[in-house]
Design a protein that fits this description.
It is a single chain. The protein is built from 16 helices and no strands. The chain is mainly alpha-helical. Helix 10 packs parallel to helix 12 and helix 12 runs parallel beside helix 15. The longest helix is centred in the middle third of the chain and has 20 residues.
Length: about 325
Amino acid sequence: MPVRPVGAAEGLHLPSVLLVGRLRDAMLGTGPVGTVPPPAGMRAALVRAVKDYDACRYDRLADTLPGVIGAGHALGEVGAVTLAEAYNLVTRIMIKLGDERLGWVAADRARALAETTGAALAAGEAARNLAVLARRAGWHDQAAQVAVSAAEDEMLHGDDPGRSAERGLLVMSAAYTAAHAGDRAGMRELTRQAAAIAAGLGERVLLREHGGGFGPAAVQLHLISAEYTAGDPAAAVAAARALSPRSLPTVERQARYYTDLARAYGMWERRDQCLQALLAAERIAPDETRARPAVREMVSQLLVSGRTSAQLRGLAARCRIR
């Protein structure tokens, strides 16, 4: 019997579905309009939203982030920089949850707002998100060009550590695109460049609000997914063994570690290790793990590729796969 994921109507109660729906309404202006806070209040709400994202609290994020979007549009120019940063966060959410139509809209709005206001870090992050979306569309040349061009832009050069960190994030994005294009040597060279930037910044984690931030551990986490994407799951597992997930700064990044490790084990046909990594991710971030299309795809594949177990069937049930 084929495995079938839960339908939209059956999943309406899921925190991820609620989050996407409320963000869509905020972006379209079709949701309820609450009291518009002053700019300082909008900034404080965005800080809370980033913390909720880092902790994978989708139910709370559904309450905080749509209000930031609505307030930004109501405040106009005075809220433009914060709104650009909010749209960058929305883009990351949509990429993670597989709604790339809204992701493109959010990324383009973030880029336009950042460029209009001269917000260098927000502009760099918008470019990185656009590169991710282009890569996922299969436009590898364009994805690499967007990331590399932004990294080379003078706005991200100079002595400011934050701008150097954003440049490092963009170089990592270009490396991941090289992996998708099958260029293992290019991926590893670009990863070395990102590692050199991180080493120059010390052991600090910078730009934590940009998807967990940038530092040596972020580069090593990136290498796990880059290696299996380039076709070497054994190297990906080796990269994972060289990194303690506890060294990663947020719940979201720790869950990413285990889902990337699961993907590597799955490619390596190590079904038991794949399942255990998925269960570890679920223990850390249940809402996110159960909602991510990449995880659901792995669970579905495990169900049809060999003998099942009570653990696997339980995970499938919690992911609404049957």
